[in-house]
Amino acid sequence: MARFEVEVLSSDDGADNVLLRGPNARDCPAIGQAAEAALSRHRFAIKLLFAVLGVAILVVCLLRADTLPGQPDQRTADANTDVQADAESAYFENSASFLNRVHHIQSEDLARSATRTAAQVVDTRAKHEAKKETVSSIFVVDDGPEDSSDAITLTGTNDANARVATRTNSSSSEDSDATTSTTTTTAPTTTQVVEPTFTCTTPVMLGNMTAADSKGLAIDDTTFSQCPSLALTKWPNTHNRISSVRLFKAWDSSWDAKYDRKAIWFTLREYIWENNIKVLFGTLISCNETADDADWAYVKELMGYIGWYYTMGLAIGNEVELIHKHPSSSPACNARLFQGKYFQNKVDARIQDMDKMEGFSSAPLTTVMGGYVLSGAPFINTPFAGVADFFRYVSGRYGRRWVYTWNVYPYFDPNVQVNPADPAACGIVLYAAQSFAVDGMITTQLRSLRASTQAVTGRWDDVTWLGETGWSFPQATTLHTPMSACPGFSGPENFLKYYQNFMNWDLSLGQGAHPINHVFFFTMRDSINWQMSEYFGLVPDCKSKLCKLH
Hints:
Blueprint: E1 5-10, E2 16-21, H1 28-66, H2 77-87, H3 96-119, H4 124-135, H5 148-151, H6 158-172, E3 215-219, H7 221-226, E4 244-247, H8 261-275, E5 278-283, H9 289-306, E6 311-318, H10 331-337, H11 342-355, E7 365-370, H12 387-398, E8 402-407, H13 423-434, H14 441-457, E9 464-468, H15 492-504, E10 518-521, E11 527-529, E12 532-534
Parallel strand pairs: 3-4, 3-10, 4-5, 5-6, 6-7, 7-8, 8-9, 9-10
Antiparallel strand pairs: 1-2, 11-12
Helix pairs in contact: 2-3, 2-9, 3-6
């Protein structure tokens, strides 16, 4: 047998080191033979040990992958935890009806999670066909009044009620105290047939969309509340799929009497998941803190319901710099927003709240403002619209996570002054208003906004989005510029030109300016804004299967 000798050595630093002397040379053959014999006897056991270790590592990895929140086609306990946390927020802690709706969503998630894994192996088309076979329809055709914005009343259907009851009963034994009233709830439904791959029909094809992956479509209130199952999956008049959408809100409490939030959210989530669409979520900032906090509770709940994987970013406030110009805005409100730092403090609070949600802590942040910010240099900075100071603050605190997003509408540009009796003058203005070339109104304004942003942040390439642009046909009731008197300004030809120029735009700005990173067109359907009709939709209404351009 080999012999080992132990010798204790002292190092320069006073520490003792143990030296293990190896066997003498004459012992080496015996060691080799013994090792070879031992290896031969235990070779199978060693291989088996490594195989077991490999399988164990694989299983751990798979289990870990299944629990990551927000991944596509994953229904996780984390999403339910987020919803539960939302329900326990301070604003809604005493609202039994809100908690009840939250439990609806929770029970729905639990019931569907068991079947989702099997569906992963089925292609998208087969899944759509299977849904048509087994689900029939969440939405029913209603030949109601033509004025869909006012007259459509939602009533429950047997199919929808059965699915609600099934999903609720499946979890009632586990959470009986939370679902005592949900089993008898009937779900009002909207008035359209479910078509998860809906696209409007038209013989007019305009070719392919340039930079399609960097272009998205805003979802208007009409589509959101009345026909979410008919949200467009393809850009009208093209073959390009829509890859991103902008949501202005998660819910409007005034809809509660007419529409079922749970059914609408469920349909919206299916639309987003099935078509792999990214969402820019929006939350309200106004002078009504109660309304703002209620809106955020809904937005946070919807974000958790849809998942971080599908989140493009969070927009906190839309054109807050213009609130002081609204006739109903009080002097106290105007002073509070910027000078009193209400807006800034709410931005911080929303971000801190969202960052606690697992998976959302790196989501891009933004607020959406318009061309009015260029009323000062680099931005307007008055007590009622302290935009420059606000951007200095968010740039210093959030750095490159903050995105600069602008609404630019040449259609509403008040600087356009022409003689409406002169058709030639109208034509010249139309070219500038509709052009996305270097000399167009929209690109010129976006270059100015980029330059002003650089003056604040010191960076020439901050991520910048175009939050809205579009053209109204027929004329929007909100158009109050001299262009309202120009013949055909809001006609179909100009609507077509603007949309086609948007399609062909490569997002460049020219003159050495960094391109825009992402843009949104407004909007899917015609809608109401501040109780006034606008006609920016690429589809007229929920009843129409035709594209507006046909």
